[in-house]
Amino acid sequence: MPETIAQSSSENYNKSVGTSAVVLAKGGGRRHSGSGVITVGGTINMPRYITVHNNHVSQVLYLGWGSDVSTSNGLPVPAGEHRTLRVWYDDELWAIASGADTDTRVYVLHGKGNPPFDVLDLSPALWLDASDESTITDTGGAVDTWADKSGNGYDVTQATAANKPTTGTRTMNGLNVLDFDGSSDYLQGAFGATLTQPNTIFMVFDLESYGGTMFLYDGIDASNRHTVYRSSSIYRAFAGVDQGGGTFDADPHISRAVFNGSASSLHIDGSSNIATSDFGSQSLTGLTLGARYSAANFFSGAIAEVIVVDGTLTAQQIADTETYLADKWGITLS
């Protein structure tokens, strides 16, 4: 029989996960006969939070909401990391691993309170965070690789010494950022998939020069582009159709670009910069940071964090993400 944890209790337990899907936890409204299954919430229809730790040294754990979870559709939990998920009355949380005998630690967090914001709850296609210096591989401060924290492995890299941005040379709100020199620095990486629209891209940046046209980011080829750049002192966005609006300044900002055909938009610090417009319908197959896809129009300034989501987000998800970025990087939302 599955174990039932009382509403007032706090509990944790180990579960071995292999290459066949197993259930980790279920809401009080679900009945499952598997051994070692925890029931949370009793008969009360309120969420409980489950934190799942992957204790394996190399294998990846994948989480999902049914027995059909797989290594291709599950939320990845890399070795040594954890995820916190909300379990409702009728939910079942399942897991599968990239290899046998992945030791998983499950923590049940009771109560109504919301857990801390976690970018991974957005299921990002790409997440780059310069404040996490463990994700940056450098040679004497020159960045070789900026590793993707989403679990998808979509790292951005630079092999040419003269084109590498630097790390450890400047900060934003006391946190490390990458410094792009405006003359040759950029990073680039291909995705393992094609992201068709709609897509949402957040970037925290600080432009320090007003000269010429400068790209915050772009795709990696001429046919698959999601672009935000500065030209003639205004912001511009492009995914096949060019649109512009607003004005640049030398302060740190959060950009949020939604690439969604005729329903596309650009917001800066939460405020509309390019109102709902048609940016075009191109897809995205990779990302260039700090330059045009063809290694031109270089960005001068700092890039702190990048989040790419394959899809659109709810108003609450947008508010939570921008609040997280603003609090972290010391930026005031409009």
Describe the protein's architecture and organization.
The protein is mainly beta and 334 residues long. The protein has two domains: 3-115, Jelly Rolls, CATH 2.60.120; 126-329, Jelly Rolls (Sandwich), CATH 2.60.120. Helix content is 4%, strand content 46%. It has one helix and 27 strands. The protein has one helix at 315-329, and strands at residues 3-4, 11-17, 22-27, 38-40, 48-54, 61-64, 75-77, 82-87, 92-97, 102-109, 126-129, 136-139, 142-146, 156-157, 166-172, 175-181, 187-195, 199-207, 214-218, 227-231, 234-238, 242-245, 252-259, 264-268, 271-277, 284-289, 300-309. The strands form five sheets. Strands 11, 15, 16, 18, 23, 24, 25 and 27 form an eight-stranded antiparallel sheet that branches. Strands 1-4-3-9-6-7 form a six-stranded mixed sheet, with no helix packed on it. The longest helix has 15 residues, at 315-329. The relative contact order is 0.14.
